[in-house]
Design brief:
two-stranded antiparallel ribbon; mainly alpha
């Protein structure tokens, strides 16, 4: 096997682990409570700041998951001798044969 396959497989795994770390980090962020007083809502700014942080972490996680999928697609393409058409046809055969049993 080509050493590039190992490199791209490793990059895919690393990207997936980084994405999982970002999602775990965003899940662990606590949201501050805010109260509604008679004149104004107290603590809304802190809540929105936490919400923005979670959104940024989720965007980073989605981006690294995308790169993980791209690296894995390149790896699958290099491993398969007949290119994308053969790979897709084998995947379809696998799903069709498993669904008919």
């Amino acid at each position: 096997m080509s050493p590039c396959i190992y490199v791209f497989s490793g990059l895919s795994v690393l990207s997936a682990l980084i994405a999982a770390g970002f999602w775990a980090w965003s899940a662990s962020i606590s949201y501050p409570e805010f109260r509604n007083s008679y004149t104004q809502m107290v603590g809304v700014d802190l809540f929105l700041k936490a919400l923005r942080k979670v959104a940024r972490l989720n965007a980073l996680a989605a981006g690294t998951a995308f790169f993980s999928a791209v690296f894995m697609a390149v790896t699958l393409y290099w491993q398969h001798p007949v290119g994308w058409e053969g790979l897709i046809s084998e995947i379809c055969k696998c799903f069709l044969s498993s669904s008919s049993t």
